[in-house]
Design goal:
Layout (H helix, E strand, L loop, with lengths): L20 E6 L5 E6 L4 E5 L5 E5 L6 E6 L5 E6 L4 E5 L5 E5 L6 E6 L6 E6 L3 E6 L10 E4 L19 E3 L7
Antiparallel strand pairs: 1-2, 2-3, 3-4, 5-6, 6-7, 7-8, 9-10, 10-11, 11-12, 12-13
């Protein structure tokens, strides 16, 4: 039988953001849903009832991307405010604030084999590898600069050759 033209009813409808919803992900168990919105909030919901469990506050820009780590302990959020933040999934409490990008952070992904390592991609043409449990002020990231040589990260422009430059601050995640 075809579903084309038939009516499909949702199992749960979640309402609770004040602006457009940008991203959504299930936790690793399927029991929680995490949402990110233009209202700058990350919210954790019960997947079966749609009940709000936590509202994670701290970003000042739209949420662009979400990921959950392999141990199902942390959620990472990327934002238009140039930051990455990590949150404890069970409580909604902040785990770390990761500063350093010079433009919008477009994506964030946890390493599947190292649950404390998170990777971020930004419009500043860099990738950063972070310790998801430590603020960037105490544990700086490893930075992979993907801007063409001769072009400043975060600045547009033509010319130069494409090659990645790794800049590893002292004490960075390895």
């Amino acid at each position: 039988p075809s579903l084309l033209g038939s009516r499909v009813n949702p199992l749960t409808t979640v309402k609770g953001h004040r602006a457009a919803l940008y991203c959504v992900i299930f936790d690793k168990t399927g029991r929680s849903i995490v949402t990110g919105s233009d209202d700058t909030l990350v919210k954790v919901w019960c997947a079966t009832t749609g009940t709000l469990r936590h509202a994670c506050r701290g970003h000042t820009g739209e949420i662009s991307f979400l990921d959950v780590n392999a141990t199902n302990e942390l959620v990472a959020s990327a934002s238009f405010d140039y930051t990455v933040r990590t949150w404890f999934l069970d409580s909604g409490v902040p785990a770390a604030v990761l500063l350093g990008h010079q433009n919008i952070v477009s994506e964030v992904r946890f390493c599947p084999t190292a649950p404390r390592v998170v990777l971020s991609a930004s419009w500043d043409k860099t990738l950063r590898v972070w310790d998801a449990y430590a603020d960037s002020a105490t544990t700086p990231p490893t930075v992979l600069n993907l801007a063409p040589h001769g072009v400043e990260p975060g600045v547009g422009g033509a010319g130069g050759t494409s090659a990645a430059e790794v800049v590893t601050p002292v004490g960075a995640v390895s």
